[in-house]
Structures are given as C-alpha cells and as structure tokens.
Amino acid sequence: MTLPETNPQPEAPGGAEDLASARDVLRLEAMALQELAGSLGTPFIEALDVLARTRGRVIVTGMGKSGHVARKIAATLASTGTPAYFVHPGEASHGDLGMITHDDSVIALSNSGETAELADLIEYVKRFDIPLVAMTRNADGTLAGAASVSLVLPPSAEACPMGLAPTTSTTVMLALGDAIAVALLERKGFSSEQFQIFHPGGKLGHHLLRVVDIMHRGDELPLVAEDASMKDAILEMTTKRLGCVGIIDTERHLVGVITDGDLRRHMDADIMSRHAVDVMTRRPRTIQADMLASEAVRIMNEMTVTNFFVLDGPEPVGLLHIHDCLRAGVV
What we know:
By secondary structure, the protein is an alpha/beta fold. It is built from 15 helices and 12 strands. The two termini are about 45 Å apart.
C-alpha cells in the first residue's frame, strides 16, 4: 500500500539520512493503521458488546511497552464515559487480582500473545468467568485462545531496522484502543456536557464550560424595581460591583438594565432625583444559562460589553461578567 507524499519540510545540512529514516517510520506505521482499519469486522463488534455490557469497570492490562499503551487506553476509556483503570500484570499476581470483580471485564494487550506475566491474570478471569478481550498479533497464542473475543492485529513489520523494538505494533494497539473508546462513546450517546464533567481542568474543560457553571446568582444579582430611585439603583450597582444593575417589574421580569455607560450618558445635575426606569436601557441583550461560556465571550467582544444578564424565561437568574470568564480560563 502506497500513501501519498506530503510536502517535505526543508532539510537541515547533513540531516538527509535522519529525515529519510524518520519518514520511513511514519510511513510504515501509517500503512499499518490502514491495514488495521481494513481488518476490523465482527470481532470488533463483539468486543464492543462485551465492554458495553460491563456493569463494573473495564480493566486494561499489559506488560512492558504494551503496558504503557494499556495505561493510555484505560485513561481514554475513563474520560469518555467507560469507567476503566489499568492493572499491572506483575502486581496482579501479588494481590491486585482482588481489584478485578465479577462485574468487570478485561482488555489484555500482548503482541506475542505469550506474555508470561499475564498467565495468573488469565487463569483468574477464566476461573471466575470474567469476560476477556485480547488485543494481540498471534491468533494462535495463549492469550487469544483464552479470550472471550480476540482482536487480532494484522501482520506488519516493526519500524525498528532490527525488527525488535515495539514501534508499529504499539502504534496499532494505541489506535485500536482509541477506536474502541470512541465507538463506545458513540454507542452511549456520551455528550459534551458529560465530557466537561470529566475534564474540568485544562483547555478542554474550559472550552466546554457553560454560562450556568460560572455565572453570579441569587443574592449576588444587582436588581432593583422599576420605581426605585436612581440613588437606590446606584447604591445596588456599587454594592454588587458587577458594572450594572437590572430593572425588574412586579412579576420579576427583566425590563431594562443600567450600565456604567448609561450613567455617563445621563449624568446631569438632577440624575439623583430621577427613577431607574427613566435611565435604563430597555430590551437589553441577554443570554441563556446553557450557552457555552466561550460563545458568550465571543458575543461580548462583538458588542463591546462586559456583562450579560442570564434569563430563565423573562426572569433574571444569573449575571455573567467578562471577569468571571477570564478567571475560569475561558478566552
């Protein structure tokens, strides 16, 4: 199988051989991934069935480089709605088998299918009838023979020139783990809201924050009645320190907003003798609690404003300030 050439980056002097070697590695591994994609079939669906039926957790295990890949697969499953964790096969033989219950299922990774350290774990899951999904290149090996479902990797050469260092094989295992996690995610209808719950930190979590997660609410809201004096409105605005005050009618419907800009535009000698309704901006722009905070920031920037009241129907239930978004890492 021949993959299309991409535009090569400029080569450093004397680095032609290095770049050629690196490109060969990437092409070999890319070809192996193409072979893997074409090889998927009924066993993959059966493996998903096993994992989707799991009432407990998915235990992922492997030794050496396969173990490193297994850790990443477990982390990906756990972050996408399939509870999972890694169990080291060596530690399993010294007590950690007790971490695996009847409600769990196991994914075991072994390129050769004959990894000695997996023997006790295989015996344990067979003894207690715990579902075992094998990920191996050896369809006739011990691991595949013991498994409930075997995901047999297509033959492909390691990218190492000696054919010894796990390179292509671990890349293929890692990608197959991603395929399993994403397919399970889609089966379960895992939503962006759920994703955000599992990713509260970092760029992903910040990008998925919603207005309701960071808005001010309850007694923090600066609100006054339509017939309130400007003195009371300014006092409320100053006390709550959010740069505005909302004006509500007798049914607590938001009918207007007074901002710092409104004060400047109406500033004159008799402003303190007027009422809030005389100064407010009617029909202000508002947002909904389920809007992504990043979307709210975009609208603020477009309108050159620093805050929005959040409505539930006609009633104000929150207020979002640009500073709240910045503190939460939403930019």
